Structures are given as structure tokens and as C-alpha cells.
Automatic annotation (TrEMBL):
SUPFAM superfamilies: Acetyl-CoA synthetase-like (SSF56801)
Sequence similarity: Belongs to the ATP-dependent AMP-binding enzyme family.
Keyword annotations from UniProtKB, A to Z: ATP-binding, Ligase, Nucleotide-binding
Name of the protein: Acetoacetyl-CoA synthetase
NCBIfam families in the record: ac_ac_CoA_syn (TIGR01217), PRK03584.1 (NF002937)
GO molecular function terms listed in the Swiss-Prot or TrEMBL record: acetoacetate-CoA ligase activity; ATP binding
GO biological process, one term: lipid metabolic process
PROSITE patterns, alphabetized: AMP_BINDING
Domain AMP-dependent synthetase/ligase residues, every copy: 107-489
Length: 710
């Protein structure tokens, strides 16, 4: 791959790295253990060599509330053992989210997308003191329902304040949180909830998106009917009512206001001093269940441990990101994406969180208006959002003040090199732009931000402390310098999932055994004893003591391998982004690629493969021979002859998951002969476009057959 950018100067250098929280932690480690660590990489190396000492020190440094006890983890064990952590510890995640009780400090601010009927919707606000009181009342109400530790509490809601309260109250009493975004289709939610059997379901009555109010109760009713028919489950339903008059109310449902009122009057679950009786459980107690995308099968129910989620989030926010109580933290996310869990964990720092319900792009200025209005200092989004913003040539810097911004976070897919340029040229020249990577599997980060390190174009800043990330070749050896490979983690880490649901004690012996085997096959079957994450990645040469940044090259199962040369799909996308996307320097009459998808088609009976590039063009443009030639020429010159697509085909649309990720693997399977029914359409935003890929796949396979006959 082209590595010219690796020698380029940084796009951003922290103005006072020596005063960063990360450097302070390094000094504390040196003092406590008599070491002479001098750089981030020194600290990183120690953190993965002595995982027991490192995580023990993190616990103390970030002030975890709870009982730590003796013993951290067996420092000699391997990831596949999935060892217990802090075996004597007793903690409660929600208790740690509500250590701040200020009556003057806003905990949550909820903004809603304007509609023609409500062009200036008021923001909803709740202070930390008010948040604690409402959580206590809901704790009481849930105890009145007879909930006990280990019961599942589910949400089918928008990104509202009540949803955060429900999560805090459920986990305060040891229940396990499960969430699905309101924009998920009922079939997709049913596939998730029927696996975990929630006793209570929270839901909103309506959601706002793209300038319209969408009634949600019909979808809720459909979900409940499915749960009743397929698994005889009839959970208690609590509906968060908006001010809108939404039809479809069922008399068996209970309103949010009624539940809170009942909880307030009973005051269950309080100590004699009036404090919530926090249900402190073991470090490895299940906190929440997240689901894989499920595009090619039933979504995997991934169970995350409470202590791991707490300790990892506090490390990421406090030590690595330097998040402070005075920060205002926003992340554009739905409640079905792990970034919602990531954002909510920011309460543990005592900062203000901004929730948003609506479209991020219908009015491109709206989120940036919120930055100025609410003084947002940490702005989180997806690479797809930044890409779309750049394509419509919206430059926030020209329309907004944005002086309050300190950090911009991007995730969901690799952030193209050209989008680093866009952020620094068109949004803010002096922010820490952190492309971050991890995922639903660990509900946290393998690589990401560090306030003590520079930002280099196209790179994730560093491997995160305590996360022993390496790259392996296909046959399981460590990659050489400059060689891309498979992302693996070679030491245990506390945010590793406990397993897939059901865990022991929560299902039949047969179902528990099947879940354990499915878990093993997902993460430990590729390389013996090592966590295999499924990302194709390059670790760059170390600069400024960072130990090497990361360049994400795509999902491993989407890696292309023509002629035995392996490369990630993002290597193609980056060229297209740089040379063919709409920008201020190009005009609407030029040939512009709006979106693209690249997959491999098997040839020679599976002995080799060829690269197939699908492109979606702006407007009604047609793919010309000249444009095809130019695409091939640019890919050849910027990458290699092996990267050049054998076929470039124009399509009407590119399929995406509900969380905004390109659907490469299902399309690859369809191109190679799988039926559309093999793809779970409930997980896709636009499943109707798959029919065109099936038709094209049939044509491509006939091409191969004709070539063989000749």
C-alpha cells in the first residue's frame, strides 16, 4: 500500500501534552513501581506485559466506587481462557455513573430534530441531582414488579433521557440491560429479544426523523405479538409518552409517568439514609447484552461484564481522552449501537451528555448549531456522517464558531485520509481528531484517542493502554514491519465478553453449551488461544513515541486476495474518496462517485479471485468508458496493478446495515451464488437493492463460465 503519508508531519500536536492525564498516569506508575517509563509506548508496553499491575493501578487512579479486594487476574493466562477478573471485587455500574449529585450541573440534555409542526423544539434537561431522584423512583417501581438480579430489561426506544434512566435503574438492581433502536424493524428486534426473554420492555410512542414524526406503537404492538406467538412471552410494557397524540395505545401498557409516580410513593430499594440500595455484584456480573449485526444469521447475543465495562470506560475517558467534568459530550448514535453505551458511560466522569433524536443531515447545520449553543467540547460521530457532510460541501467552520470543541471522534468504518483533511480544513484546525476502533464485540476500543499524542493523517493515534494488539499473517505469524495483517489481541483484557447468551445458570445445559461453542468459534478458532477480531489492519512505524498508529483496511472476511495479494477494501475506497467524490474543487458536471462497494468473486474453481467494484454515481450520471479507465488508472498508480478491479459496475444503491455500515460480506456471497434469502433483510436499511446484486452476480458467474469454455 501507499505509505507516503507515514512520513508526513502531524495534522495536530497537543499544545500541552506534558500536562495530560496520560502523562500524569505514567509518572504515577513510575513512582509506584520504581520504573523509568519515558514515552507512551513505554507505558503501553508495560501495561500489556503486566496486565495485573496495570489494571490494579487503573482501578485506584480513576476512583472506582466499590470493593476491590485482593487479586486482579492471572498474568500468565491466555485470552482463550477468558479468565476471571478481580475475583473478590463487588461493584455496581450504575452506582459509579451517579457519583455526581450536583443540583447545578446538567447530567443530560436532550435535543430533538425540528419538524414543520415544531420548528424550534425545546431541549429537555435534567441535573445530576434530578437524575438520581428519578432513577431511585424507577428502581422502586421495578422492584414492585418483582424484578431480581439477572432478569433482562429491554428497550425499544429513541435516544431520550428516559431511556438512560431506565438503563441506570435496571442495572442498579442487578438486571441485565438490552437495547434495540427505534428505527430497527420489528423482525430484527424480535430476533434479538426472543433470545434473551426480557421481563420488561420500555418503548417510546413516537420518534422524529427526517423532519417527520413516526408513530412507534404499531411497531411495538407487532413486536409484542411476535414475542407472544414465538416464545409465549408477555413482558410488562412501559411506554414513554411524548406530547404528541399518538394512536394505538393498549390498555395493558403502563405509562412512564404512572410508573415513576408509583415508584416515588413506595420508596422501595432505599437504605435508612435514603440512598439507593445498589446491588453490588461480582466484577464479571453481566451488565448488558449487545447484538452482532446478524446480516448472515441470527444476531449473536454478546454479554458484557459490569466491571469490565466500567473499568475500561474510565480508563478510556479519564486517562486516555482526558475527559473532564466540565466537558459537554455528544455522540450521534442510536440506542442500538454500542456508541450509545459508550456515551452513557461518560456519566461516570461527571460531565454533561447531549442526546439527539433525529436525522443528522436533513439540516446539515443543526448539529453544529448545537455545538455552539450547548458548548459541546467532545463531538462524536461516524465516518459515514463526515463523508456525507463533505460530499454536500458543507463547511461548518464557515457558519459556526466552534471554539468550544476539543475533540472530534469518528468510528463505524475506517476514516479515509481525505476526511482527515476535511475535518482540519473545513471544521476546526486545532482539535484532536480521533478515529477510534473496537466494536460491539468488546463494547469499547482497541485503538483510539490519546490527549498526549499527535494526530497523523489517515491513522488511529495508538493502541489503547492494556490492549495487547498485534497483527498476524494468515498462517498465524507476527507481521513484519509495514505488512498488513489480522488484528489480534494476545493478552486477556477485562472488557472481553463473558460469553454469548445464555450464560451458565440462565439456560438449559444444551443451550449454554451451544452458546459457549459459538463464542469460541467467533473469536478463538482462527488463531490458537488468541482473540481474533476480524479486522484487517496495518500498524505503522512508531512516531513521537506512540508505538505505531493503526490504519484500518476493512473487515478480514472482506479482504480481497487476487493472485495471492491480500488487501483491504478501504484501500480501494480511499482512492475513490480522494479522486472521484464531489468536492469544492470538482463540480457537478464532473463524474462523481457517491458511494461504492468492492467484493471478490471466486474464479478458477475457487483457486483465485477477481476484484469487482460497484459504484453509485451522483444524480443520473452514467458510468462511461472514460470514467472506468480513469478509475482503473488511479487505483493502479496509487495502489498496485493487483488492486485494479476486473469489473466496474454501476448500481442504483449500496446496501447498508441499520447502523450505517457497508454490507460487503453478504454481497460477496450473493455475487458468488448465494440466494438473497441467506441475508437477514431485517438488519439492513435498504434490503430492496440486493435484487440488483443478485442479477449482476448471475451475469458475472456466466462470464466466468464462458471464459472457462473458451
Amino acid at each position: 500500500m501507499n505509505t507516503e503519508s507515514l512520513a508526513a508531519p502531524p495534522l495536530f500536536v497537543p499544545p500541552d501534552a506534558i500536562s495530560s492525564r496520560c502523562v500524569a498516569f505514567l509518572k504515577k506508575v513510575n513512582e509506584k513501581y520504581g520504573l523509568a517509563l519515558d514515552s507512551y509506548f513505554d507505558l503501553y508496553q508495560w501495561s500489556i506485559d503486566r496486565i495485573d499491575l496495570f489494571w490494579d493501578t487503573v482501578w485506584d487512579d480513576v476512583a472506582i466506587v466499590g470493593y476491590k479486594g485482593q487479586g486482579v487476574v492471572d498474568n500468565n493466562t491466555l485470552p482463550a481462557a477468558n479468565p476471571p477478573w478481580f475475583s473478590e471485587a463487588r461493584i455496581n455500574w450504575a452506582e459509579n455513573m451517579l457519583t455526581c449529585r450536583s443540583a447545578d450541573k446538567f447530567a443530560l440534555i436532550q435535543a430533538t430534530e425540528p419538524t414543520p409542526e415544531c420548528p424550534n423544539p425545546p431541549h429537555q434537561r435534567v441535573t445530576y441531582a434530578e437524575l438520581y431522584v428519578i432513577v431511585a423512583d424507577l428502581v422502586s417501581a421495578l422492584l414492585m414488579l418483582g424484578l431480581k438480579p439477572g432478569d433482562r430489561v429491554a428497550s425499544y426506544s429513541s435516544n431520550c433521557i428516559e431511556n438512560v434512566i431506565a438503563c441506570l435503574a435496571a442495572t442498579a438492581i442487578g438486571c441485565i440491560w438490552v437495547s434495540a433502536a427505534a428505527d430497527f424493524g420489528t423482525q430484527g428486534v424480535l430476533e434479538r429479544f426472543e433470545q434473551v426473554q426480557p421481563r420488561v420492555v420500555f418503548a417510546v410512542d413516537a420518534v422524529v426523523y427526517n423532519g417527520k414524526v413516526h408513530p412507534h406503537l404499531p411497531k411495538l404492538q407487532s413486536l409484542l405479538s411476535g414475542l407472544s406467538e414465538r416464545c409465549s412471552l408477555n413482558p410488562v410494557v412501559i411506554v414513554i409518552q411524548s406530547a404528541r397524540n399518538v394512536p394505538g395505545w393498549d390498555t395493558d401498557w403502563v405509562s412512564w409517568d404512572t410508573v415513576i409516580s408509583k415508584g416515588k410513593s413506595s420508596s422501595l430499594g432505599r437504605t435508612s439514609e435514603g440512598e439507593i440500595e445498589w446491588c453490588r455484584q461480582s466484577f464479571d456480573w453481566p451488565l448488558w447484552i449487545l447484538f452482532s449485526s446478524g446480516t448472515t444469521g441470527c444476531p449473536k447475543p454478546i454479554v458484557h461484564r459490569a466491571g469490565g465495562m466500567l473499568l475500561q470506560a474510565k480508563k478510556e475517558f479519564v486517562i486516555c481522552a482526558d475527559l473532564r467534568p466540565e466537558d459537554v459530550f455528544f455522540y450521534y448514535t442510536t440506542t442500538g449501537w454500542m456508541m450509545w453505551n459508550f456515551l452513557v458511560s461518560g456519566l461516570s466522569v461527571g460531565c454533561t451528555l447531549v442526546l439527539y433524536d433525529g436525522s443528522p443531515l436533513r439540516e446539515p447545520s443543526y448539529l453544529w448549531h448545537l455545538v455552539d449553543e450547548l458548548q459541546i467540547s467532545i463531538f462524536g460521530t461516524s465516518a459515514k456522517y463526515l463523508d456525507q457532510l463533505s460530499r454536500i460541501s458543507y463547511e461548518p467552520r464557515d457558519h459556526h464558531n466552534l471554539t468550544c470543541l476539543r475533540h472530534i471522534y469518528s468510528t463505524g468504518s475506517p476514516l479515509a485520509h481525505v476526511l482527515f483533511d476535511y475535518v482540519y480544513e473545513c471544521i476546526h484546525p486545532n482539535v484532536l481528531l480521533a478515529s477510534i476502533t473496537g466494536g460491539t464485540d468488546i463494547c469499547s476500543l482497541f485503538g483510539g484517542m490519546c490527549s498526549a499524542l499527535p494526530v497523523y493523517r489517515g491513522e488511529i493515534q495508538c493502541r489503547m493502554l492494556g490492549m495487547a494488539v498485534e497483527t498476524f499473517t494468515h498462517d498465524g505469524h507476527n507481521c513484519q514491519a509495514g505488512e498488513a495483517g489480522e488484528l489480534v489481541c494476545v493478552r486477556p483484557f477485562p472488557c472481553m465478553p463473558i460469553g454469548f447468551w445464555p450464560l451458565p445458570g440462565f439456560g438449559t445445559d444444551e443451550s449454554v453449551k451451544a452458546a459457549a461453542e459459538r463464542f469460541r468459534l467467533s473469536y478463538f478458532a482462527e488463531y490458537k488461544d488468541m482473540w481474533y477480531h476480524g479486522d484487517h489492519v496495518l500498524i505503522t512505524p512508531s512516531q513521537h513515541g506512540n508505538g505505531g498508529g493503526l490504519i484500518m483496511l476493512g473487515r478480514s472476511d472482506g479482504v480481497l486476495n487476487p493472485g495471492g495479494i491480500r488487501f483491504g477494501s478501504s484501500e480501494i475506497y480511499n482512492v475513490l474518496e480522494t479522486c472521484f467524490s464531489f468536492s469544492a474543487q470538482r463540480n457537478a458536471n464532473d463524474a462523481n462517485i457517491e458511494d461504492a462497494l468492492v467484493v471478490a468473486q471466486s474464479i478458477e474453481g475457487g483457486a483465485d479471485e477477481r476484484v469487482i467494484l460497484f459504484v453509485k454515481l451522483n444524480g443520473k450520471q452514467a458510468l462511461s468508458i472514460e470514467m472506468e479507465q480513469k478509475i482503473r488508472s488511479e487505483i493502479r498508480s496509487q495502489r498496485s496493478p493487483r488492486h485494479v478491479p476486473a469489473r466496474i459496475i454501476q448500481v442504483d444503491d449500496i446496501p447498508y446495515t441499520l447502523n450505517g455500515k457497508r454490507v460487503e460480506i453478504p454481497v460477496k456471497k450473493i455475487v458468488n451464488g448465494a440466494h438473497i434469502s441467506s441475508v437477514n433483510s431485517a438488519t439492513l436499511r435498504n434490503p430492496e437493492c440486493l435484487a440488483q446484486f443478485a442479477s449482476i452476480g448471475e451475469m458475472l458467474r456466466k462470464e466466468i463460465l464462458m471464459a472457462v469454455k473458451r
